[in-house]
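worker-03 picked up job from queue 'complexes'. Input manifest follows; two sequence lines, order preserved.
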Amino acid sequence: MPQLRDSGTRAAHDAGATPAAELDGFQRIFGIETEYGVSVTGADRPVDAGQVAMTMFQPVVSRARSTNTYLDNGARLYLDVGSHPEYATAEARDPLDALAQDAAGERIMASLAAEAQKRLRESHGAGAAIHVFKNNVDSAGHAFGCHENYLVRRFVPLETIERQLLPFLITRQLYTGAGRFTSDGFQITQRADFLDEAVSSATTRSRPMVNTRDEPHADPESFRRLHVIIGDSNRSHWATWMKLASTHLVLCVIEEAVRRGVPSGFEDLAFDDPAAANRMVSRWLDADAAEHAESGASPVDALAVQHRYLDAVEAFVRGRHAAVAASLPRTDVDAVLDAWRWALDALGRRDVAALATRVDWAAKYRLAEAMRRRKGGDLPLAQLERMELDYHDVANGRLYASLVAHGQLAEGVSGVVPAGDGDGTCADGCGDVRDGSTTMDALVRRAMHTPPADTRAALRGAFVRRALDAGAQFSCDWTTLVVSAPLRRETTLLDPFHAGETDDYRALMAALQTNR
Amino acid sequence: MPQEFQQTNRTQQEQPQDAQETGVSAQAAAQSQEGFDALDAVLDDIESTLETNAEEYVNSFVQKGGE
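worker-03 finished. Artifact:
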């Protein structure tokens, strides 16, 4: 019976020391946890969020006898507090892999919703439609999250991360914010009004920006898991990729500075009041307008802060290009820097039309302008909110797909380099990533049932696949795989960078084979 | 008018990276700099959806916070 146990780090000391290469280099593990919102329209009688979520999870429960499970792509699928379907990507070494896994999660949610909608229509009328929102706020102002995880070397003190990374996380929202229409205007982020503390150990009672709940799911002597809460859920592939890739590079600078005992250059960027700064960045368009009107200086010059980070990161990458490039097996580090520079330049020009091809908030903002123009005046807030929700609805929404189909929003990302020998093909023939967006589609489709090949997730995914095929009782968490019947066996996989089979793992897999 | 729009779009193509522009469809990478006419096709797609029961649709989305 698959039951989740967050074993976390309990077996840490059994598994031996962390390989020096993992500590000395810049390689990282990335993960994204996305909570979805749910609703039903067009039903004969009301259906609340709890019912929708349970209907969606019926197949999961009948398979796993739990609303928590791991999938054969290595990801975790579960029902979170507040009836939020949640999907956590498998461990990825590259932002592109994390993006493909996250986008695969959208499709898995969409498919659960489509099945549930069929069942719901039998009981609640043929017009019932299930909406699954990849956003961060419901209509009553309840907020929920999209959390990023970064494996960070433990020799970096948490206070250093807080002080040197937080200004980056707050200001990167200029190009990673998902945007939100509110009764008092447009904000470029979904969540600024709901985040108060900079760093905290809890997420449900108070809402911090960076969470210290330190479960590295790796050797705790060597690593901590940085849990970033401040970000929005993105539909834009570019935005998801950029937020992971740019944050990775800033973390590389911070880690290397601590490693060598030299300044990072980010020491003086901390905001006195991070929550206030965050709200101000979210009102960037307003502040900008005010600034132009009064020629007064904006108290938080978010764009200038971003330029400071980018300049430092560019100089850093120039100095150790091979080592940093090696930390990103599929993403070209120069393409990240180019994309980052492009975004800051477009922001500097206030070029919303250019940004709208990649940045979620800009896509929405530009669309609202077009709607106003067509109507010849202001629109009721409800219509803007309706448009916005449609953009985030991965089940029945039409807007995102329409923007992509009409060339208004880029699907896929720029600057990926292929795995392996660099000739543009994946090892298992998934196609050439340079072909265009159809191949991004192929990457996402593949990620629905295929874990990243170069992390622990490869082992977990194969285990889940075989256990399901064998009809075996099994359970997982991030570091442990367990077969519970007929004979109990388990194995611990402490090193997330390690995709090689251990003796324990082979024995576990062999036992499943025998069960068949 | 979708077809006219697509042509305009191609001539205005301007990409943030040239050599490294991989994985992005050329059309999607195009940036429309001119007004909002280019969005007409998108608005046509969604207009009827957006105008029906906007308020009911929005208000039906209520759940407790998560995280």
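worker-03 released lock.
Chain B touches chain A through 49 residues (CB under 8 Å).
Helices of chain B lie at 2-11, 26-29, 40-51, 54-59.
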